[in-house]
Design a protein that fits this description.
This protein is of the alpha/beta class. It has a single domain, classed as Glycoside hydrolase/deacetylase (TIM Barrel), CATH 3.20.20. About 40% of the residues lie in helices and about 15% in strands. The chain is built from 9 helices and 10 strands. Strands 1, 4, 5, 6, 7, 8, 9 and 10 form an 8-stranded parallel sheet that branches. Helix 4 links the parallel strand 4 and strand 5. Bound molecules: zinc ion.
Amino acid sequence: MFVSRYKQKLKSLAGGVLARSGLFGPALGEKAVILGFHRVNDENEDELTYGVASFQQVCTFAKEHFHVVPLDEIVSRLERGRSVKGLLAITFDDGYEDNYTNAAPVLEQLGLPATFFVVSGFIETEHVTWWDKSMPSAPKWMSWEQVNDLHARGFSIGGHTSTHVDLGRVRGDEAKLEIQRCREELMEKVPCHVDMFAYPYGQPDNLLEENRRVIARSGYRACVSCYGGTVSPGEDPFRLQRVPISNWFASANQFALEVALGRA
Ligand SMILES: [Zn+2]
């Protein structure tokens, strides 16, 4: 524990030097960054939750060192073969209510866009996911009114399946339904145009190639993972990697270093 804290501190310092020295831009080269958050609150302490103050720090850092754009902008540039240098997009998975109550006000205050990938079947329900079962009190999902309000305030809404299935295992009609119903439901209930998709669990094994093709044929223009790191120019919009942000990152500076080193 001590060693890892010490390491974090060192990395934090190094990242700070890197950020202040102006070397951060060159270290990233031609790449863009897509950040992936889940929960933003000060009540839970687990790897899916990032504290409110830390969230504010990372967003401020992003604003100072990147051109923060809607994810859609990075995708449009990739589609046209244009540069994505220095761009950063902020995204959230699942549709937790703290995205609305804690994250959106910070983003708005800083004038930053973001995309919220929502599990349509969780919205406005009391559903407790298997990964949240051990929590003292189950985190809440947004209501449809809150999702609508996010959209009305200029944020983007993206698809994340209708019940958070593992698209690395589920296939055929069931996968198709999960991918398409989510989009239809969001477009009907918000209403908004939905063309960004994040696949559940987000690791390399959680998306079968046949399901990636279904996503591409279902009206989405992009599909993001929840691992991997940065986005290079010329990349396939259906194979975009993200930097997952959890409390593993002790500070915005450490985040800067990890991203610059390509390890995030
Ligand atoms: Zn998810």
